[in-house]
Design brief:
Blueprint: H1 6-27, H2 32-37, H3 39-49, E1 53-54, E2 68-69, E3 74-75, E4 83-88, E5 103-106, E6 112-113, E7 135-140, E8 142-143, E9 149-150, E10 159-160, E11 163-166, E12 175-177, E13 184-187, E14 195-196, E15 200-201, E16 210-216, E17 228-235, E18 244-254, E19 259-262, E20 267-270, E21 280-286, E22 297-300, E23 303-306, E24 309-310, H4 311-318, E25 337-346, E26 349-359
Parallel strand pairs: 1-7, 8-17, 11-17, 18-21, 20-26
Antiparallel strand pairs: 2-3, 4-5, 4-7, 5-6, 9-12, 10-11, 12-15, 13-14, 13-16, 16-17, 18-19, 21-24, 22-23, 22-25, 25-26
């Protein structure tokens, strides 16, 4: 029997496959833009280009990096948090850093910067300043223990790890720090250089301010991964002199026991005025990652006022058909108290906390 060469068979096979492919292409043209932006195509392309390398946790689950390694980026981080990032050169063992230039921090925009550029992360990834095949470890800032800071006039009920609320009379004073000598501190997103700690934060901000302070061990010391902390200092507004109530509330949520509390004062005061246009109300919430749906919102009298409690929201509520004068929010009513409720979901579970606005007396 004559032997048949395999070459024509193979050729015919692939020609048939090509013809089938061409027929499909003729009937359903490929959208190039859609192809390039396809998630699977992106994944394959990134695998071919390489990734950054993240330090993995030890046998006890400790020492690993936050985030997910990607092509020139680290994803999967938490919004509105502070991060430190360490880099290892080739041949440098984990746990040892050769110099200060290998310790950096993350800006609000997700870039690797010095301590002076640190900010609460706006998104969920570090996307500037990383190189594929370099080893990194991303560390989340911890709350500064309340045993490490104190103020002469502090209220113990308004002091937590990582947070303290002071009276408006304590503006422009100092905060005493213990156990942090030789560390560096900086108000976040400040153009100033880090300050070496000698026993205190030398001067706090004015009344009605909320300031984050970030702490890190000396750049010349051996790396201590426990030496990266944050502290938020809230100084209350003088209730007797302002017609503006602008407050950013920090939400503290404990999913384990279902509690939801405010880091600062759960109330605000506004001076009485016969003209509500002279009064500005703006209460926003930060500090926790809530479910996108249902969206977090303020409520009064069982009706939603939206994500920010402000004059517009109050006016919209007051225009609701069928409300009586007693049910409306009247900012010109002296000595009046209005209690609002903030509701948000985490993992499908509802959390809520109240906030009270008090209008002052007529002069």
């Amino acid at each position: 029997m004559r032997r048949v060469s395999p070459n024509p068979v193979i050729c015919a096979f692939f020609c048939a496959i090509a013809a089938m492919g061409l027929s499909v292409c003729v009937q359903n043209p490929v959208d190039l833009k859609g192809f390039v932006e396809d998630d699977k195509v992106k994944e394959i392309a990134e695998q071919g280009q390489g990734k950054v390398i993240l330090v993995q946790p030890d046998g006890n689950g400790d020492g690993g990096s936050e985030g997910i390694a990607g092509n020139g980026k680290i994803t999967g981080l938490t919004k509105d948090k502070y991060y430190m990032i360490e880099r290892w050169n080739e041949g440098t063992p984990p746990g040892q850093l050769p110099g200060a230039d290998e310790i950096q921090f993350v800006s609000a925009a997700g870039a690797c910067v010095g301590l002076e550029g640190i900010g609460r992360l706006n998104g969920t990834e570090i996307k500037t300043g990383l190189a594929n095949n370099n080893i990194y470890r991303v560390t989340l800032a911890e709350s500064l223990p309340k045993t490490n800071f104190n103020h002469t006039n502090e209220d113990p009920a308004k002091k937590y790890d990582g947070l303290i609320t002071l009276k408006y009379t304590d503006a422009e004073t100092s905060m005493t720090l213990t156990g942090l000598s030789g560390w560096y501190v900086i108000p976040s997103e400040s153009p100033s250089s880090p300050i070496s700690i000698s026993g205190s934060i030398p001067q706090l901000k004015g009344a009605g301010t909320t300031t984050d302070y970030v702490f890190h061990t000396s750049f010349n010391a051996a790396l201590d991964r426990d030496g990266f902390y944050e502290l938020q200092v809230i100084i209350e507004t003088d209730p007797s002199t302002t017609t503006n109530l602008t407050v950013t509330l920090t939400a503290y949520v404990n999913p384990a026991d279902g509690t939801f509390t405010w880091g600062g004062d759960p109330s605000g005061n506004i001076t009485w005025s016969e003209n509500p246009n002279d009064q500005t109300v703006s209460v926003t919430v930060t500090g926790s990652t809530f479910d996108a749906s249902p969206a977090p919102a303020w409520y009064y009298n069982g009706k939603s006022l939206g994500a920010t409690l402000n004059n517009m929201a109050i006016n919209t509520y007051n225009s609701t058909a069928g409300l009586t004068d007693e049910e409306k929010i009247d900012l010109t009513a002296a000595n009046k108290r209005y209690e609002f409720t903030y509701e948000a979901y985490i993992g499908g579970k509802l959390f809520s906390a109240p906030f009270t606005i008090t209008i002052g007396s007529k002069p």
